[in-house]
């Protein structure tokens, strides 16, 4: 028979074993409750559609992040937001297409420029983007609504000018009435003075680069050959521009300033009055320069006396005496009746009102570049939307 001292430790051990067993049961019960709760949650989740805020399966528990493109890019910066209708033209630096912004059925012109980093054209792309943004400050310069890019191309969304080019206007009419020449050239004066005050020389002014917008006002376009930062007495050099519109100092490889634009302006004015250029264009610079030096200008009978006085001051061989670069052209008698304030505010009636084709009636084409993504876009700081473009309405 065991003594009392022997039985007490055994009793204590049994109580501890019972307590441990009870604890195990409680733990198992808790685990079963937790697992049951998780099963119910999973069943509920399968019954309802997954919310964008729900964590991804196997994720860290945070909401899924949208891609940088989807999160940051407003609709005007997506090529899929546009329908393309036809080609408007193709120049040295890119192709221009007629398109419509789908949510508004608003017609725009989209310039497509290939991105060629091996040829260093990123600098040219960024320059044109800057100039098109600066142009927003003048009503007679073609400006950008938006700029964006894909893997292979940079896109400039521009105003669509349904009136075509000044070249087409001259071609259709042969020569323009004096009042129309006064109107168009006065708007060009405002545009050129704005560019030059911002240190920009266009360098390729010609009728093909002057558009007539939807209301009949002119828009100088195509800044592909333009230069920036020409202020004060600074001069630049370079044989560039279009034959027939190049100033003599450009042809003779001298340094020049904004006066080269005023020479081109004079050539265009003469062409508007006569239907032809004053000097025969030539791809050979020396031959074109000889033509300018030797040819005497001829004035048709219908040309006003004021215009006969103005043209020689614009087509002045001496670049330091040329009007525009030297003196204020607005003060010339040819523009005596122009209300410059009303003109700048586009309040003067235009010579004609172009017809705007309805976007939903135009055929739609599907260019290959529409399938390009923007995942590998490389031109930093290029994408932009004009805050004054009411694309959201």
UniProtKB/TrEMBL annotation:
GO terms for cellular component: cytoplasm; nucleus. InterPro entries: AGC-kinase_C, Kinase-like_dom_sf, Prot_kinase_dom, Protein_kinase_ATP_BS, Ser/Thr_kinase_AS. Transmembrane segments: none annotated. It holds the Pfam family Pkinase. Residues 82-335 form the Protein kinase domain. Residues 336-393 form the AGC-kinase C-terminal domain. GO terms for molecular function: ATP binding; protein serine/threonine kinase activity. The keyword Plastid does not apply. Keywords: ATP-binding, Kinase, Nucleotide-binding, Phosphoprotein, Serine/threonine-protein kinase, Transferase. Residues 1-28, 41-53 have a biased composition (Basic and acidic residues). ATP binds at residue 112. Residues 1-75 are annotated as: Disordered. Belongs to the protein kinase superfamily. This is Protein kinase C delta type-like. It comes from Xenopus laevis (African clawed frog).
């Amino acid at each position: 028979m065991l003594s009392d001292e022997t039985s007490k430790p055994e009793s204590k051990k049994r109580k501890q074993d019972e307590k441990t067993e009870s604890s195990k049961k409680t733990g198992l019960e808790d685990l079963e409750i937790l697992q049951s709760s998780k099963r119910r949650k999973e069943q509920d989740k399968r019954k309802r559609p997954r919310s964008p805020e729900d964590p991804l399966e196997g994720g860290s528990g945070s909401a899924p992040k949208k891609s940088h493109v989807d999160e940051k890019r407003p609709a005007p910066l997506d090529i899929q937001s546009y329908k393309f209708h036809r080609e408007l033209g193709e120049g040295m630096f890119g192709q221009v297409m007629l398109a419509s912004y789908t949510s508004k059925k608003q017609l725009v012109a989209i310039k497509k420029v290939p991105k060629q980093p091996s040829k260093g054209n990123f600098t040219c792309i960024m320059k044109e983007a800057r100039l098109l943004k600066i142009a927003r400050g003048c009503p007679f310069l073609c400006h950008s609504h938006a700029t964006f890019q894909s893997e292979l191309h940079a896109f400039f969304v521009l105003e669509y000018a349904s009136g075509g080019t000044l070249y087409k206007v001259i071609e259709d009419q042969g020569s323009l009435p004096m009042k129309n020449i006064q109107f168009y050239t006065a708007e060009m004066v405002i545009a050129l003075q704005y560019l030059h005050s911002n240190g920009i020389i266009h360098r390729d002014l010609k009728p093909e680069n002057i558009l007539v917008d939807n209301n009949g006002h002119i828009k100088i376009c195509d800044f592909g050959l333009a230069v920036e930062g020409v202020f004060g007495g600074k001069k630049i050099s370079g044989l560039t521009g279009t034959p027939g519109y190049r100033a003599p100092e450009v042809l003779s490889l001298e340094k020049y300033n904004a006066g080269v634009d005023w020479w081109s302006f004079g050539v265009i004015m003469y062409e508007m009055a006569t239907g032809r250029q004053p000097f025969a264009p030539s791809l050979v610079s020396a031959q074109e320069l000889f033509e300018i030096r030797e040819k005497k200008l001829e004035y048709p009978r219908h040309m006003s006396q004021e215009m006969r006085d103005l043209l020689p001051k614009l087509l002045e061989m001496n670049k330091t005496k040329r009007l525009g670069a030297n003196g204020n052209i607005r003060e010339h008698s040819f523009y005596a009746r122009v209300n410059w304030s009303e003109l700048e505010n586009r309040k003067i009636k235009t010579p004609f009102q172009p017809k705007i084709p309805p976007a939903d009636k135009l055929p739609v084409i599907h260019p290959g570049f529409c399938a390009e993504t923007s995942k590998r876009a490389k031109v930093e700081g290029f994408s932009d939307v004009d805050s004054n473009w009411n694309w959201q309405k």
